[in-house]
């Protein structure tokens, strides 16, 4: 697996694919090892890197449903996944994640949802995945600090304005202590780990 991960990291670098970065990766792996989620929903497959980390470091026979909009990336992901021992465990669904989440079986509850697709849609993703989350399930969201802009007082460049606004909204939503507990790891591009409180 080490060789395949290395190959994927090189591919990502060469083709500017934003896979979870080196610092975020460490936290991500620790969380996967700790919670060992069996049923995982991933929003944003890219080339399958984080999906393979999840199967490799996580529960034996964990099942991942991974959503990806870009056909070429999904193909590349399938290609890499086919070179691993986890091809039966990861299923990629091509298309817009927000739409495809709604088509998922409402009775199939996830132990973990990894949010890592369109940054401007995190609040929407959150609303949509909550009914699909197991009672003791966790939600991980990558890039919530988005290049430092989210927590900064400085105005973000115009092209990032909406993303930053939506990520702030996301953080505010998961910081509602009546509903959730959330820890934000500043490593990498910001990783938010959220658990839902039982009373909701
Ligand atoms: N989780 C991956 C990285 C994902 S990068 C890893 O860490 O290895 C974000 C991905 O989300 C990109 O591949 C992009 O094509 C995809 N994406 C963007 N908008 C999307 C949408 N609306 N629906 C599904 N996927 C989307
Ligand atoms: Mg990311």
UniProtKB/TrEMBL annotation:
<keyword id="KW-0949">S-adenosyl-L-methionine</keyword>
<keyword id="KW-0479">Metal-binding</keyword>
<dbReference type="InterPro" id="IPR002935">
    <property type="entry name" value="SAM_O-MeTrfase"/>
</dbReference>
<protein>
    <recommendedName>
        <fullName>tRNA 5-hydroxyuridine methyltransferase</fullName>
        <ecNumber>2.1.1.-</ecNumber>
    </recommendedName>
</protein>
<keyword id="KW-0808">Transferase</keyword>
<feature type="binding site">
    <location>
        <position position="116"/>
    </location>
    <ligand>
        <name>Mg(2+)</name>
    </ligand>
</feature>
<keyword id="KW-0460">Magnesium</keyword>
<feature type="binding site">
    <location>
        <position position="116"/>
    </location>
    <ligand>
        <name>S-adenosyl-L-methionine</name>
    </ligand>
</feature>
<comment type="function">
    <text>Catalyzes the methylation of 5-hydroxyuridine (ho5U) to form 5-methoxyuridine (mo5U) at position 34 in tRNAs.</text>
</comment>
<keyword id="KW-0819">tRNA processing</keyword>
<keyword id="KW-0489">Methyltransferase</keyword>
<feature type="binding site">
    <location>
        <position position="20"/>
    </location>
    <ligand>
        <name>S-adenosyl-L-methionine</name>
    </ligand>
</feature>
<comment type="subunit">
    <text>Homodimer.</text>
</comment>
<feature type="binding site">
    <location>
        <begin position="96"/>
        <end position="97"/>
    </location>
    <ligand>
        <name>S-adenosyl-L-methionine</name>
    </ligand>
</feature>
<dbReference type="InterPro" id="IPR029063">
    <property type="entry name" value="SAM-dependent_MTases_sf"/>
</dbReference>
<comment type="similarity">
    <text>Belongs to the class I-like SAM-binding methyltransferase superfamily. Cation-dependent O-methyltransferase family.</text>
</comment>
<dbReference type="Pfam" id="PF01596">
    <property type="entry name" value="Methyltransf_3"/>
</dbReference>
<feature type="binding site">
    <location>
        <position position="142"/>
    </location>
    <ligand>
        <name>Mg(2+)</name>
    </ligand>
</feature>
<feature type="binding site">
    <location>
        <position position="50"/>
    </location>
    <ligand>
        <name>S-adenosyl-L-methionine</name>
    </ligand>
</feature>
<feature type="binding site">
    <location>
        <position position="143"/>
    </location>
    <ligand>
        <name>Mg(2+)</name>
    </ligand>
</feature>
<feature type="binding site">
    <location>
        <position position="68"/>
    </location>
    <ligand>
        <name>S-adenosyl-L-methionine</name>
    </ligand>
</feature>
<dbReference type="InterPro" id="IPR043675">
    <property type="entry name" value="TrmR_methyltr"/>
</dbReference>
């Amino acid at each position: 697996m080490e060789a395949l991960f290395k190959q994927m990291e090189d591919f990502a670098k060469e083709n500017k694919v934003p896979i979870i970065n080196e610092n975020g990766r460490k936290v991500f792996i620790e969380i996967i090892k700790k919670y060992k989620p069996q049923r995982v929903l991933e929003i944003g497959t890219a080339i399958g890197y984080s999906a393979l980390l999840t199967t490799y470091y996580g529960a034996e026979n964990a099942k991942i449903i991974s959503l990806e909009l870009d056909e070429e990336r999904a193909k590349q992901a399938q290609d890499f996944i086919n070179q691993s021992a986890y091809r039966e465990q990861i299923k990629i669904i091509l298309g817009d994640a927000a739409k495809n989440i709604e088509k998922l079986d409402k009775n199939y509850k996830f132990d973990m949802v990894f949010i890592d697709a369109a940054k401007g849609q995190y609040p929407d993703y959150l609303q949509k995945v909550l009914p699909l989350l197991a009672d003791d399930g966790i939600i991980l969201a990558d890039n919530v600090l988005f290049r430092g802009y989210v927590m900064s007082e400085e105005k973000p460049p115009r092209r990032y304005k909406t993303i930053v606004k939506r990520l702030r909204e996301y953080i505010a939503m998961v910081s509602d202590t009546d509903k959730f507990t959330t820890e934000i790891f500043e490593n990498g591009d910001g990783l938010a780990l959220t658990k839902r409180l039982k009373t909701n």
